[in-house]
TrEMBL record:
Protein known as: ABC transporter ATP-binding protein
PROSITE patterns listed in its UniProt record: ABC_TRANSPORTER_1, ABC_TRANSPORTER_2
MF (Gene Ontology): ATP binding; ATP hydrolysis activity; transmembrane transporter activity
Family (UniProt): Belongs to the ABC transporter superfamily.
Coiled coil: none
GO terms under cellular component: plasma membrane
Residue ranges crossing the lipid bilayer per the database entry: none
Length: 217
C-alpha cells in the first residue's frame, strides 16, 4: 500500500535563500508525527508545501502514490479538499457562520447535500463536546472552542492526512489538553497526522518526532 504522504527532497527558495532545503519525510496511515524546531527554521513553509498551499521550488509531494504538484490547479484543489485537513494556529473560522456551518462547509463543497454535511458536522461537534454550541456564531466562541471547531472542520471530509500548525500555541493549558484529545481522535479515525509544535506534551504523544533546523530535517 502506498504511503499516505511521501515528501521527496522538497526545496522552497525565496530569492537567493532556501527556506526549506531538501526535506524528505514519509507518513503512514494513522501515524502521528510531531515536527519541532526553532522559530523561523522552515516548519510552516514545509507544512504549506505538503498541504498544497505553496508550490515547492524543487522536489515532490506524493499523496497515496500521486505526485500532487503535477496535477492541474482544479484537480489539485479537489485533492486538497478531499484528502487534506488543515488546522492553523489562528482558527480561520468564518465569523458570520455558526460552529455547525463552519464544520459543514467543506463537506458541502465536496458534494454532500446540505443535510448530509450538517449531519456529519453535528457528529463531530458532539464528539468534541460542542453540541450545545453548534448554533453559536464563530465570533462568540471562546478561543478553545473555536480551535476545536477548526479541528472538526479539518476532519469532516475524513481526510487521509491532517496537518496542524501550532494548534495549541494560543491556548491555555486546559484548552490545549482538549485540543490534544481532538488531534488524537484524528489518528483514531485513521488519518496520518503531522503537527508542527513547540508543545512538548504534543510531541511526547506523537509516535515519532522529527526536528527541523535551518531548513533541513
Amino acid at each position: 500500500m502506498p504511503k499516505v504522504l511521501r515528501c521527496e527532497s522538497l526545496v522552497r527558495r525565496l530569492g537567493a535563500h532556501d527556506v526549506v532545503r531538501g526535506a524528505s519525510l514519509d507518513l503512514d496511515e494513522a501515524e502521528a508525527v510531531a515536527l519541532v524546531g526553532p522559530s523561523g527554521c522552515g516548519k510552516t513553509t514545509l507544512l504549506q508545501m505538503i498541504g498544497l498551499l505553496d508550490r515547492p521550488s524543487a522536489g515532490r509531494v506524493v499523496l497515496a502514490g500521486h505526485d500532487a504538484w503535477s496535477l492541474d490547479d482544479a484537480v489539485r484543489a479537489e485533492v486538497r479538499l478531499a484528502w487534506i485537513g488543515f488546522v492553523f494556529q489562528q482558527n480561520n473560522l468564518v465569523e458570520a457562520l455558526s460552529a455547525r456551518e463552519n464544520v459543514a462547509l467543506p463537506a458541502w463543497r465536496l458534494g454532500s447535500s446540505r443535510r448530509e454535511a450538517e449531519r456529519a458536522a453535528d457528529a463531530l461537534l458532539e464528539r468534541f463536546g460542542l453540541a450545545a454550541r453548534r448554533d453559536a456564531p464563530a465570533s462568540e466562541l471562546s478561543v478553545g472552542e473555536a480551535q476545536r471547531v477548526a479541528i472538526a472542520r479539518a476532519l469532516v471530509n475524513r481526510p487521509r492526512l491532517v496537518l496542524a500548525d501550532e494548534p495549541t500555541g494560543s491556548l491555555d493549558s486546559a484548552s490545549a489538553d482538549v485540543v490534544m484529545e481532538a488531534l488524537a481522535a484524528a489518528s483514531a479515525l485513521g488519518a496520518a497526522l503531522l503537527v508542527v509544535t513547540h508543545d512538548l506534551r504534543i510531541a511526547a504523544r506523537a509516535g515519532r518526532t522529527v526536528e527541523m533546523r535551518d531548513g533541513r530535517l
